[in-house]
Amino acid sequence: IIRQSAEDQVGDVYDTPGWDQYYGWGRVNAVRALMMSCASCGDANDDRTVNISDAVYLIAYIHAGGYPPQPNIGVGDVNCDGAVNTSDTIYLIAYIFSGGPPPMICYQYTY
């Protein structure tokens, strides 16, 4: 998890993508590591399970001014398109009912 959540290419101009002898896997990002370890992406209502209630929660947030995804907005962007929108609810429903791809952990948010 530490390796996968590291911020790569944070060194000088000679820092190459992936592991290298000067910077290893990159700078440790503790927040990314924590998010990966708790695997909360898609659990919009923070009840520790990803199910249809999370899709309903996102629909209420997007279309009816409901509460934002918990514990942060990033868990609602399950397809990593940079926004919490209707496509996230469709993605979640496909995952829950049709065995679609699982929710992704997105890093563009400030947690």
Tag the structure with descriptive keywords.
single chain; 111 residues; mainly alpha; 4 helices
Explain this structure:
The chain is mainly alpha-helical and 111 residues long. It contains four helices and no strands. Helix 3 (52-64) runs antiparallel to helix 4. It is elongated, with a radius of gyration of 16 Å. It starts with a helix and ends in a 13-residue tail after the last helix.
In angstroms, what separates the terminal alpha carbons? 17 Å
| Overall pLDDT metric | 82
How many strands, what sense, and barrel or not for the largest sheet?
Answer: none
- Percent helix, as a range, is 25-40%
- Number of distinct helices: 4
Dominant shape = elongated
Q: Strand share of the residues?
A: under 5%
Strand-helix topology:
Elements lengths: L1 H4 L24 H9 L13 H13 L21 H13 L13
Please provide a brief summary of the model.
It contains four helices and no strands. It is mainly α and 111 residues long.
